[in-house]
Amino acid sequence: MMMAVDGRIDCDMTAQLTGVDHYYATLKAIDAPTRISGRVTAQTELTTGETFRGPAGAQSSKPGFAKNQTAASYNVVLDTRGTLLWPNDAGQSQPHLIITSEQASQAYLDYLTKQQISWIVAGKTQIDLAQAMNVLGDEFHVERLAIVGGGKLDGGFLDAGLIDEISLLIGVGVDGRVNQPTVFDGRPADRKPLPLKLKAVQSFDDGAVWLRYLAQ
């Protein structure tokens, strides 16, 4: 994750910071080729922005999965209601894998299968992250992944106890604007902070700093 000194992570903002050129090198260095993002990030950066419109009264989905592609790594996207449209994934070296809840319709899952995109359904009204990660590991053989979505996605994984390492590239600048996303967000107010252990610090000649922490 890249952020400004004040912890804000808006992509358009961080793209303007000195140090952004180190982002993909630091991401590669943590050895987590499978990457996971949320619906908003995916809709902005990975799709055309169009949404799926299924038939009226479509049947809801049930827990399960479909392995429509086999690969060494995946681009995983959380899409709770099953709304994003995708190009056909045939022949992709790092195919998409969509995780939804039972709020997604069976028609949407059929659409994903037609597009040769793998999917996992976990959770009734919200995605059950722990269940989804178990399926991802057991059935798709993903042992390690990098969360590259927004603060609420990071906060959800943090709250579920599914984060073992935090990698932060701090760009040389401050945002300071109101209502901007931060690295972790959305946890209930009664949650306690997660203790960390410093793993490594690397500074760059341009002033950027890369921090790595292990969850305790």
From TrEMBL:
InterPro entries: DHFR-like_dom_sf (IPR024072), RibDG_C (IPR002734), Riboflavin_Biosynth_HTPR (IPR050765). GO terms for biological process: riboflavin biosynthetic process. The keyword Transcription does not apply. Pathway: Cofactor biosynthesis; riboflavin biosynthesis. Transmembrane segments: none annotated. Residues 50-208 form the Bacterial bifunctional deaminase-reductase C-terminal domain. It comes from the Bacteria. The keyword NADP applies. One of its GO terms (molecular function) is 5-amino-6-(5-phosphoribosylamino)uracil reductase activity. Keywords: NADP, Oxidoreductase. This is Deaminase-reductase domain-containing protein. The lineage of its organism: Bacteria, Bacillati, Bacillota, Bacilli, Lactobacillales.
